[in-house]
Amino acid sequence: MGQRRGKTKGYRISDIYEVYHFPTTSDTLFRTYIDTFLKIKQESSGWPQTCSTEEEKATYIREYEKKEGIKLDAQNILKNPGRRQVAKLALNSFWGRWGMNTLRSQLTYVNTVPDFNRMLSDPSNDIKDVYFPTAEVAAIHWHSKKEYLSQDASTNIFNATFTTAWARIKLYNEMYKLGRSVLYHDTDSIIYASDGKNDPPQGNFLGEFTDELDGDSIATFVSAGPKNYAYQTKRGKTCCKIRGFTLNFRNSEKLNFESVKSLVRSLDYESKIPLHNPAKITREAKRRKVINKEETKLYRMVYAK
Prior knowledge:
Oligomer: single chain
Number of helices: 8
Radius of gyration: 25 Å
Strand order of the largest sheet: 1-3-2
């Protein structure tokens, strides 16, 4: 899928390492799981802006059932951001779980010399660290060597990649249409400069774009890197999303729309905004304890991609 789309844009396939063929297909394998959480997510999104009368609401429910095979409950259709987020996480993490890295580090405790020697002498183990939490117990940090890794029945990279590949193609198709109007994009969203004619078609069904601003529009947008942006809408609402930084009340006083905008406009890649947390909750892995400690993180522009 992705290769065909890439070839239309001038990309060339230089090497092919493996080819897989699947003679059996199914469109019902995950239907029950997807339908359960998609129903919750859709109901928790509230009524579409086009539904203001009882007749329009009834039409919306009928059309959704006809298109998706899911019957929404009118009494449950109410905006509930928390409930919607939980359902969205259940849907998105499902594909991530299929693609989970099985070469994960493990921690094993042993309290006998034979068990200790067995762990260290096993050729399939890659020992990363050994320490002694107590005088009688040894903690061994290790993971299986790749050549000894057994097949995990709870992962399937093809289920994960096929779904995300289709989503990526949908995103790229709209980005190609928008061209240089695109200001920023993530895995499932696009921020772009609208001229009133280039707006992508929107809808209420799976795979269709929706307006995340509820009829508002962005007046000023700045980005200091991937997953690092802020904007202000025409109604005066500001939003700041930065990966790796918890924007609580204290941090938001320093790191906000105005400070990010000022930093981006300065074009100063060396300038930093320090954020101090006097009691960050963290853990001491070797002592197996949760503690509070001071932490200072530095925010800056990052354009490394």
